[in-house]
Write a structure and sequence with these properties.
This protein has 144 residues and is α/β, with parallel strands linked by helices. It has one domain: Rossmann fold (3-Layer(aba) Sandwich), CATH 3.40.50. Helix content is 44%, strand content 20%. The protein contains five helices and five strands; from the N terminus they run βαβαβαβαβα. It has a five-stranded parallel beta sheet with strand order 2-1-3-4-5, sandwiched between helices. The longest helix has 18 residues. The chain is globular.
Length: 144
């Protein structure tokens, strides 16, 4: 993480309120200590990222991005993040119910760092969150 930023956070774009609550519970249960920031669509996510970056207040550890959202969908949001000269370093993990190989391939072409299918049950969500934490927090060294 760039040392010019004061805090780290996980930025999650998810338009479904029930899914946001489940994710909040799962990340808390798995000991995620970074701040969780939830947005309801890609437009809101990008505004948050731009404001935090421009004010040099915070940098995301990674972005967890749903594909199917109103206003600006996940693919449009991913494209915009990866075209920004500084935000493009931010790891973006697609977290979607869309299990279509063409869509998955397109997300990787746009710069997604990972693509994870949303687990159908809470126990599987807990396992996915644990793996996300282990990989993106405990193992990966972020660019500065």
């Amino acid at each position: 993480m760039n040392k010019q930023f004061k805090e780290r956070y996980l930025l999650i774009a998810e338009d479904d309120e029930d899914d946001r609550q489940l994710m909040q519970t799962a990340f808390t249960a798995k000991g995620f200590t970074e701040k969780l920031v939830f947005t309801e669509n890609g437009e809101e996510l990008l505004n948050y990222m731009y404001n935090a970056h421009n004010n040099k207040t915070a940098a995301p550890v990674f972005v967890l991005l749903d594909l199917n959202m109103p206003k600006k969908d996940g693919k449009e949001t991913l494209r915009e993040i990866k075209q920004h000269p500084e935000l493009k370093k931010t790891p973006v993990v697609i977290f979607s119910t869309t299990n279509n190989q063409q869509v998955i391939n397109n997300c990787y072409e746009l710069g997604a760092n990972s693509y994870i299918l949303k687990p159908p049950v809470y126990e599987s969500l807990l396992h996915a969150v644990e793996l996300l934490k282990q990989y993106w927090i405990d193992i990966v060294i972020s660019p500065s």
